[in-house]
Structure formats: C-alpha cells, structure tokens
Design a protein that fits this description.
Blueprint: H1 3-15, H2 30-40, E1 47-57, H3 61-70, H4 76-92, E2 96-104, E3 119-126, E4 131-140, E5 145-152, E6 156-159, E7 170-172, E8 175-177, H5 184-187, H6 189-205, H7 213-232, E9 236-237
Parallel strand pairs: 1-4
Antiparallel strand pairs: 1-5, 2-3, 2-9, 3-4, 5-6, 7-8
Length: 242
C-alpha cells in the first residue's frame, strides 16, 4: 500500500528471473474484455465519461469495522476502488491527473474515529480530458454490486447494471425477483481461473504477464491521492514520476 515501497520493489522485480503477476483480475472477466474490445475497435467513439461502482454487501460491514479497529486497510479507495482505477486506465489508455474525493459513514459512524468511511466517491480528470466517477461502499443490501458504464462520442455501454446471479427470474408472492451475486468470489470466479491460467502460461513460456507492477504503482498513486483528497477536502493534482 506504500508508494515508495512499490517503487523500491519494481527494479527488484525487473532484475529477477521470477514471473511477477499482479492480482488485477477484472481484465480477465469476459464482460470487461468484451467491452474493451468494443472500445478498441472504436465502436463507441472517444470515451468522454466512465462511471464505476464497487459495493460490498452490508452484511460484511460489522466484520470490517472490527478489522479496521486493529488493522490499516489503506482507506476505501486503496482497499476497494483500486480495481475501478485500473479499469479506467485500461479502457482509456490515459493516466488520471486530478481527483476530488468525498465520503461519509451513515451506516457505521464509528469508522470516523478510524479515519475510514463506509462509502466514498471520487471524481477524476484524465490527461486525455476524459472524466471518471468512482463509488465504493460497504452498504449494499442486495449483494455484491460491481458496475461500470462507459460513455463515448458514438455510443455507450454498461457492464453488469444489475448483479444477476444467473438467468433465473423468480415470480412469487414477493413480486418479480432476480437473484443477485453475494460476493466477489461468485462474481469473478471465471476471471480468477483465467488469471491463474495466464500466470502458469507465462511461467511455462517465460513471458511477462500483461498486468504488472507498473499497473499497481499507478493505481496506488491514484488511490492515495483520493485518500488525501478525502481527508483534506480539496482537489489533488497527481504528480507522477515518469
């Protein structure tokens, strides 16, 4: 979670003969890959806005409060939004240069004493002029909700607008219901499998995975800037070491 530690580690990784693979699994998700392919083909034109949500089930909130009392999570943006930040960079091919973050603790007021929030948002401006909005929370009553929307000059696409567990629709005395996913292991199961397969393939063929330490550094720098913005209530300009 420490930016300097990451920077110090990167040359060690480069000089090693080991295969290093960072755990950003969303790029292996079929839906995110499908959207990426559409973007790269220019089907929605130039990206103007990206909106990305990552919401954990509220049933895990008490557990997190206990965890945060004894451990440092790095803040909600490092802990949760890091994946959304990576997707924003992946889809746009551009770095994030400005962030303005906010948050609150409506569901778990005690988190304020721990410098944590149970829900946080960040508005971002990218170097190419695109705008991104990220929301992370621990208070979703319906389950595990990860959703990304990309608006372009020729169209828009939305990934997982509802976190459907499967294609079943239930009709009963409660009305019409679509069962929803309840955790990240359910939502990204196939992504994790593909990620491990890629890791093994790179070891066998002595290749470097697409997801590397550089992706982790850049996303962590953005997440840290969001945390600073949240704590200091100001716009933060990100200065990268190129």
């Amino acid at each position: 979670m420490d930016i300097n530690e990451i920077r110090n580690m990167m040359p060690v990784i480069e000089q090693s003969n080991k295969v290093f693979h960072l755990g950003f699994m969303r790029i292996y998700d079929a839906d995110y890959m499908y959207a990426k392919d559409m973007i790269d083909r220019g089907e929605i034109g130039e990206i103007s806005i990206i909106r990305s949500y990552g919401l954990d089930p509220i049933e895990g909130l008490d557990s997190f409060v206990k965890y945060a009392a004894k451990n440092i999570s790095g803040g909600i943006f490092s802990d949760m939004s890091i994946h959304d930040i990576d997707i924003i960079r992946w889809y746009t091919g551009s770095e994030i240069k400005q962030v303005w973050a906010m948050g609150n603790n409506k569901a778990a007021p005690s988190l304020s004493e721990l410098n944590e929030v149970d829900i946080g948002t960040a508005t971002m401006k990218l170097e190419n002029g695109a705008i991104a909005f990220v929301a992370a929370g621990r208070t979703a009553n319906h389950g595990y909700h990860v959703e990304t929307e990309v608006i372009g000059t020729k169209g828009m696409l939305r990934i997982a607008a509802t976190p459907d567990k499967n294609k079943v629709t239930v009709f009963d005395n409660n009305g019409v219901i679509r069962p929803t996913l309840q955790n990240f292991a359910e939502r990204f199961r196939e992504s994790y499998v593909k990620e491990i397969e890629e890791f093994v393939r790179c070891i066998r063929e002595n290749k470097k995975p697409e997801v590397n330490a550089w992706n982790g550094l850049r996303s962590t720098e953005v997440a840290a800037a969001c945390q600073t913005s949240l704590e200091e209530e100001r716009l933060v300009e990100i200065q990268y070491e190129r």
